[in-house]
TrEMBL record:
Annotated family: Belongs to the calycin superfamily. Lipocalin family.
UniProt xrefs under PANTHER family: LIPOCALIN, LIPOCALIN-LIKE 1 PROTEIN
Annotated ranges, domain Lipocalin/cytosolic fatty-acid binding: 34-172
InterPro entries for the chain: Calycin, Lipocalin, Lipocalin_CS, Lipocln_cytosolic_FA-bd_dom
Gene: Lcn15
Protein name: LCN15 protein
Gene Ontology molecular function, alphabetical: small molecule binding
Pfam families associated with the record: Lipocalin
Plastid keyword on record: no
Length: 176
């Protein structure tokens, strides 16, 4: 019985984490959220992430919203020898601050927390046949990140089932 009880507790914790809902910014205001952000830090369980993490630099993402309420993102990512541009569209889920990828991209995007003027913490879940991939991104309006803000971000990492060894604090980049 003493061996079974800890095992049951671990199973229950895993089930609770898998079923837990991601918190969303209360009274999310898309108009205030729109604009340019810097990707300052990322934590991810994606299998490709550890290989890419050391090469990554801070990128910019410009957020806008369609008349239908969908989130459009233009991401400019500095690579070794060029700037890569991505355009993403997330459909409004019906809940403010929660967006879903198009039918080809099985993704959920949640704006967990933001003060609109300085920072935002965004949670992304990509559904895969093998295993869901989770990431948290710390977005900032300026490239500078305060230690307090970084600490706040780091505190969320274990609550999303991620670990500190999955964290990349992206160096500033004047490129792109």
């Amino acid at each position: 019985m003493t061996v079974i009880l800890p095992s049951l507790v671990l199973v229950l914790i895993c089930l609770l984490q898998a079923g837990a809902e991601v918190p969303i910014q209360l009274d999310f205001d898309a108009e205030k959220f729109a604009g340019m952000w810097h990707v300052a830090a990322i934590v991810s369980n994606c299998s490709m992430f550890p290989k890419m993490r050391d090469e990554m630099k801070s990128s910019t993402i410009t957020i806008s919203f369609t008349p239908e309420g969908d989130l459009a993102a233009k991401l400019i990512w500095p690579l070794v020898d060029q700037c890569q541009e991505f355009e993403l569209l997330f459909q409004h889920s019906g809940q403010a601050g929660h967006y879903r990828g198009t039918s080809q991209e099985k993704k959920d995007l949640h704006v967990m927390e933001t003060d609109y003027g300085h920072y935002a913490i965004v949670h992304e879940l990509q559904y895969d046949e093998e295993k869901p991939q989770t990431s948290l991104q710390l977005l900032t309006r300026e490239q500078e990140v305060t230690p307090q803000l970084l600490h706040k971000f780091e505190e969320l990492i274990p609550t999303m089932g991620l670990t500190m060894d999955m964290l990349a604090i992206l160096p500033k980049s004047g490129e792109c």
